[in-house]
Write a structure and sequence with these properties.
The protein has 176 residues and is of the alpha+beta class. It is built from four helices and six strands. Strands 1-2 form a two-stranded antiparallel ribbon. The chain has a two-stranded parallel sheet with strand order 3-4. The model is unreliable at 1-16 (pLDDT under 50).
Length: 176
């Protein structure tokens, strides 16, 4: 029985070491992505376990400091700040566990025009290693796209939907 308890204690220590290393790496990566997304080096993110003693038992805490602001809980950030913080975390997770593509639905809804441009250019920079489908109703966002896809009703014998696509890469003067 003593051998088993020692094994469990050693495993517990290894889990703490791994969780600590992952947390430190994620903090650095998140800060880099948040600073890149916000186009401001003063943006910071804090990422860690809710229970540092046993990090594998509980969830994670994730908080961000928006440029030029003091530390606040995620609940107190504006809608646009929450979106930028969530996107930074999404791209950090992607750097550790890559997905072949993202579908982002109206991520620009709470962003002002300045931040729409920052987020759109950040996503454009990431497209070399990631395919992204973004659903947006704002021209400020979709004007940065490679293609526009529209869905509309097809009036025929039965009600169907029809897809329309416009390749914007053939119009290089209009791509931002």
């Amino acid at each position: 029985m003593q051998c088993k308890m020692e094994d469990i204690a050693m495993l517990h220590g290894n889990m703490e070491d791994i969780a600590g290393e992952t947390s430190t790496t994620n903090d650095n990566e998140t800060n880099t992505d948040l600073s890149s997304l916000a186009k401001n080096q003063s943006a910071q993110a804090f990422f860690g376990p809710e229970n540092p003693k046993e990090p594998y038992l509980d969830g994670i805490k994730y908080n961000c400091v928006a440029p030029g602001k003091r530390f606040q809980s995620m609940f107190n950030l504006s809608g646009g700040e929450k979106i930028v913080a969530a996107l930074a975390l999404l791209f950090v997770i992607h750097s550790f566990q890559p997905a072949p593509f993202f579908v982002l639905d109206e991520i620009d809804v709470a962003l002002d025009n300045t931040n729409i441009g920052k987020v759109a250019s950040y996503i454009r920079d990431k497209t070399s290693s990631l395919q992204t489908i973004v659903i947006s109703l704002k021209e400020e966002f979709y004007s940065h796209a490679d293609a526009l896809i529209g869905i509309c009703p097809d009036i025929s014998e039965c009600l169907e939907s029809k897809m329309l696509m416009l390749d914007l890469t053939t119009y290089p003067t209009y791509i931002n």
